[in-house]
Amino acid sequence: MPKINPEKNSPELWLEHWPWPDAEGHKYRRGHLGCVTGPPSATGAARLAARAGLRIGAGLVSLLSPPASVLVNAVHSTAVMVKAFHDSDSLSSLASETNCTVIGPAAGVTEATARNVISVLATAESAVLDADALTVFKDAPKDLFKHLRPTTVLTPHEGEFERVFPGLLDQLGRIEAAKSASSVSGAVMILKGAETVIANPDGRVVINRHASPFLATAGSGDVLAGITGGLMAQGMSAYHAACAAVWVHGDASLRFGPGMIAEDLPEMLPGILASFYASRS
Ligand SMILES: NC(=O)C1=CN([C@@H]2O[C@H](COP(=O)(O)OP(=O)(O)OC[C@H]3O[C@@H](n4cnc5c(N)ncnc54)[C@H](OP(=O)(O)O)[C@@H]3O)[C@@H](O)[C@H]2O)[C@@H](O)CC1
Ligand SMILES: Nc1ncnc2c1ncn2[C@@H]1O[C@H](COP(=O)(O)OP(=O)(O)O)[C@@H](O)[C@H]1O
């Protein structure tokens, strides 16, 4: 088998595609991100994603919330909006109003989550599937694959990856496994870890080592899903958004350093954006 030498992730790969706001623009032109929340006791993960999406520049961000979680979400949200969905049909309708929807963080490993994932994929312009949105297809990954498109990004850690692509990691190693999974599923893959691999269905692969070990903290992956979705909502292609989000997420962790918790990551984004903005030619 030919050895793949993946490209190293760096801003040169994607910064020229950064979705800066137009001087004449308004918030709707900066894109609408939706983040699907879980039950009342598990809403924080989606809120981390939502805040990251807003910080990275999406013009509007909505928490798409089961009715029982609306109050807890509303109490904890200010600029981020809250919209209730009663079933997968009404979620589908809300997702159709977004440019990208993130689903999975603390969504719950339930049949309802599986239905909700399919509904989001049917109507959202683009989607990020993380955590439970992947785990829930453990016994029938092909049921998921048939709904995936090149505008979908999957963001598994190794445990989640193994559930949806059993045996691939052991058989091929991380880089080849991510590449194969992207090709088989037809979606962009972010295989997370100390070295994160980003793979596109067309065979492009990038490896990211620009990250701090302090990222090993609860909720940091939810923030990555939100950054990715926030960039896609602004019109960045799924592959460029995936590469950019992973680098920026890593940069935020390196800038913060020891003591970082997931909540700190979105607050590091303005400094990173300022340095990108200043470097525009
Ligand atoms: N604030 C909140 O609300 C938060 C809510 N969260 C939500 O919690 C839910 C559960 O998600 P989760 O990722 O914590 O656990 P889960 O899917 O059960 O897998 C864990 C098992 O997988 C394995 N494993 C292998 N490699 C691994 C790796 N690199 N990183 C991690 N695990 C790895 C390992 O098994 P082992 O290899 O040790 O046998 C491990 O025991 C989900 O809905 C998520 O969104 C979180 O986002 C946190 C913040
Ligand atoms: N040792 C490490 N070095 C660099 N990055 C790491 C390390 N451990 C985890 N990460 C990163 O932290 C994030 C963890 O995401 P995830 O496992 O989904 O956590 P959670 O479900 O708690 O949000 C990923 O982006 C992963 O790449």
UniProtKB/TrEMBL annotation:
Belongs to the NnrD/CARKD family. It comes from the Bacteria. It catalyses: (6S)-NADHX + ADP = AMP + phosphate + NADH + H(+); (6S)-NADPHX + ADP = AMP + phosphate + NADPH + H(+). It is an enzyme of class 4 (lyase). AMP binds at residues 192-196, 221. (6S)-NADPHX binds at residues 45, 157, 222. Gene3D superfamilies: 3.40.1190.20. Its EC number is 4.2.1.136. HAMAP family: NADHX_dehydratase. InterPro entries: CARKD, Ribokinase-like. Its cofactor is Mg(2+). Keywords: ATP-binding, Lyase, NAD, NADP, Nucleotide-binding. The gene is nnrD. Residues 10-276 form the YjeF C-terminal domain. This is ADP-dependent (S)-NAD(P)H-hydrate dehydratase. Catalyzes the dehydration of the S-form of NAD(P)HX at the expense of ADP, which is converted to AMP. Together with NAD(P)HX epimerase, which catalyzes the epimerization of the S- and R-forms, the enzyme allows the repair of both epimers of NAD(P)HX, a damaged form of NAD(P)H that is a result of enzymatic or heat-dependent hydration. Homotetramer.
